[in-house]
What does this fold into?
Amino acid sequence: MKTIDRRYALAAIATALASPFLAAQPNPKSKPSQAANVNVLATDALLVIDVQNCFLPGGSLAVNDGQAVIPVINALAKQFKNIVLTQDWHTADHVSFESQHPGKKPFDMIGLPYGRQVLWPDHCVQGTEGAALHKDLDIPQAQLVIRKGFRTPVDSYSAFLEADRKTETGLRGYLKTRGIKRLFIAGLATDFCVAWTALDARKYGFDIYVVEDACRGIDANGSLAAAWLSMQKVGVKRTRSAQISAA
Ligand code: VGL
Ligand code: ZN
It folds into this structure.
């Protein structure tokens, strides 16, 4: 009798799990912004933004809990055939560095010919250990590393377009030439380089998913919530790595 009861119980659970009606019920615990499962296509690419020592614990512009993205990104990368990595790649006297503006403090704002600029602790100087990709990032199959922010007078959060909003990095041409239509974005930091990259990519007509558990933010003065809001406004989708799988 006991065995039969158990069988009924298991069958009931199996039916509940398989039922499309029940599956369609909103789960009060899940965030409404969460996207459905996505299958990775040949025309998709994963963009891994700035997983560099300076942005990780011990680095000069360390993002809180930044190291947590590394295993997530390594696993996610196994689902993709097309992968691009980026590196923030500044000259030692870069205009975005606090050290270049006597009397200013990190995170102060200044005006530059192209607009307002946050002053950052010096970070990601070309060729230094701080600018290197973290040693635990394990994506040897990545096909392109794009460097940005290498012009002293101009910052570049976006992997597509520098902060003057005119100078292109070449990434758009590369992706279009390779027939890529949809981008999955991961890395650091959610509210700066990830968000600016996602917004520009939308402008250029790519379909965008930001993988939230594969990103972490700096969150200076509410910048993280503001970034999610501006991404949501232009149709950037927010997803999680567990929902992404190879077709
Ligand atoms: C970044 C601030 C300054 C980033 C780069 O990778 O998000 N943030 N430079
Ligand atoms: Zn930078």
